[in-house]
Amino acid sequence: MCGICGKLDLQGNGPVDQALVRRMTDAVHHRGPDDEGFYFFGPIGLGHRRLSIIDLNTGQQPVSNENKTVWIVFNGEIYNYQELREDLVRRGHTFRTASDTEVIVHLYEEYGEACLEKLRGMFAFAIWDENNKSLFLARDRVGIKPLYYCQAGSSLLFGSELKSILIDPSVPREVDLQVIDRFLTFRYTPGPETALKGIYKLQPGHFLLAKSGSITIHQYWDLTFAPQARHGNNFGEDLSDLLRDTVRGHMISDVPVGVLLSGGVDSTAVLSYASELTTERIHTFTIGFAGEGIVDERPYARLAGKRFETNHFETSISAREFESFLPRYVWHMEEPVCEPPAVALYFVSQLARRHVKVLLSGEGGDEGFAGYPEYRNFPIFEGLKSALGPFRRPVAAAIASLNKIRRVRRLEKYSSLMNVKPEVYYLGRTSTPTDGFTRSLESLYTSEVWQNIDHGKSLRFMQPLFQKTAAQKLLNQMLYVDTKTWLPDDLLIKADKITMANSVELRVPFLDHRILEFAASLPLREKVYGRSTKHLLKKVLSGRVPHEILERKKAGFPVPYDAWLRRDLKEMVYDTLMSRPARERGFFKPKAIEQLIEDNSAGKNRSKQVFSLLTLELWSQTFLDSNPNLN
């Protein structure tokens, strides 16, 4: 786990500004406090910050091949590197280190860009090929590791974090209002664009090739839902073996490994397999909150810790601690994301850092095996639509008419799903239209901003993904879209950047591509069966995970930020959103913002909208008004 960055003169001129690349590397010091390294040659400069996890003595980067014509800087872990190394040695390659990084170098020598197909892990890396005068940037299949790039004039800049790119004074800081609208629509920014014009995210499962003055982007992996060839139909046994093997790979480390417990099914499942694979007591960590009406995860995490005899640690935070961290939250996240649990993740990973350098978590189980409560509706609704045939629309209209009766108002979603296209339902499920905020954006925006955006473009963003999976059942369509958007651009940004803020490596076994592909190949009944979500996974975990955890309602890391925004943080919210910089920025009408704050304080539940706007303003102050190099 590290931080990488670099700059290439696309015209082949040189030398690259070494001092600039060193400053770019300093900007991500928190990602790798253990060491630094550089490679400079003609038009290319590569920088690296190291968090030592594997091969503590000889794993320094950049790493080259035998004749020093291929150089790499790498962020991540390759879990099958030992098998790959053995094969490469048989093919005549010579190794100077015991690291997984060097395996990628020789794999690239052997297979070129096709080396990506053989890697099992999480990664973002840059390879400079001196013979071809080419720069090869790649990101893992799911997007566990971030990678940004920008073309500024005749130069290509890249980095694990956006702030490295902003060190270069030739990169303008111009806000993209269309992306801002997309953020306020979805509460995160799906897609390759960032809120700063000209700076992009390399998409998961893609690589970038810069050669002969041109830049091309290629996709090398996609998630498909075709059934896999199997011997028999013992899905449970196959899944258990795959989980055990995956967790074993994710535990490879030369430093202590712990488990981040949310008190839910997936993180406890990871702990259950991890406990089988070591004779050491595993360190586990969780965070919780006490108070009326607040879901506290700690009792369930304690139960898991007791069941698997771990060294268990807990923490909690106050409203004031939440408030004081918000500027740093925005600085570390770098993109506007409405994700209050990220603040909780920061404090629990800070606790973990006192004991371990590596954490395993259960992130991704819901996207792979259909764990969100909404997923269980889709097979039922599709069955209804099929059974009703031509009577679908009149029945839907009849159901909608019953919504005036309070006790059956919950049937509204049945009516809507039988009538609308999948992407429209997706918007109502995952973004702000359900609470009326997006419909009120026109009243919030200043007229100048509203005239310079195409709000319909934000609403249509998901359409191509649904069209790509049009032949699939709705449940698989939703799983595909979530895996391509919500997962990498919200959950995994949070998971990577907030844990790396504390120099902790977070590993996510459920997002191993073999597990995702296995889950995608399952019959729908093995994902959702009746009202049961993650049906097969829960069958496999029955007797392994305590039933109190297996049968509980999904919660995650619930942070009571809504109550805090209404009470403890109300003054800070008002001062930030009504400040002179915010008003002079000209995004929103001050009176409309003031009314939104008051509505939320009056109990009208506008917390997500308020937190989104608060995040956006703090982001603007940090990345539009200030120098992002705040270390």
Strands, helices and their partners?
Layout: E1 2-9, H1 18-26, E2 35-41, E3 44-50, E4 63-64, E5 70-78, H2 81-90, H3 100-111, E6 121-129, E7 134-139, E8 148-152, E9 155-159, H4 162-166, H5 177-186, E10 199-201, E11 206-211, E12 214-219, H6 235-250, E13 257-260, H7 265-276, E14 283-287, H8 298-307, E15 311-315, H9 319-333, H10 341-352, E16 358-360, H11 365-369, H12 377-388, H13 392-401, H14 412-419, H15 422-430, H16 441-444, H17 447-451, H18 455-459, H19 463-468, H20 474-484, H21 486-500, E17 505-507, H22 513-521, H23 535-541, H24 547-550, H25 561-566, H26 570-577, H27 580-585, H28 590-601, H29 607-623
Parallel strand pairs: 13-14, 13-16, 14-15, 16-17
Antiparallel strand pairs: 1-3, 1-9, 2-3, 4-5, 5-6, 6-7, 7-11, 8-9, 8-10, 11-12
Helix pairs in contact: 2-3, 6-23, 9-10, 9-29, 10-21, 13-14, 20-21, 26-28
As a percent range, the share of helical residues equals 40-55%
Remind me, CATH topology of the largest domain? Glutamine Phosphoribosylpyrophosphate, subunit 1, domain 1
The CATH architecture of the largest domain: 4-Layer Sandwich
Number of beta-strand segments: 17
Contiguous helical run count: 29
Going across the biggest sheet, name each strand in turn: 2-3-1-9-8-10
- Most strands sheet: 6 strands, antiparallel
Rg from alpha-carbon coordinates: 24 Å
CATH top level label of the largest domain? Alpha Beta
The mean pLDDT is 89
Are there runs of 5+ residues with pLDDT below 50, and where? Answer: 402-412, 433-437
The class by helix and strand makeup works out as alpha+beta
Shape: globular
Specify the CATH homologous superfamily of the largest domain. Answer: Aminohydrolase, N-terminal nucleophile (Ntn) domain
Strand content: 5-15%
Estimate nothing, just give the exact number of structural domains. 3
> Could you give the distance between the termini?
19 Å
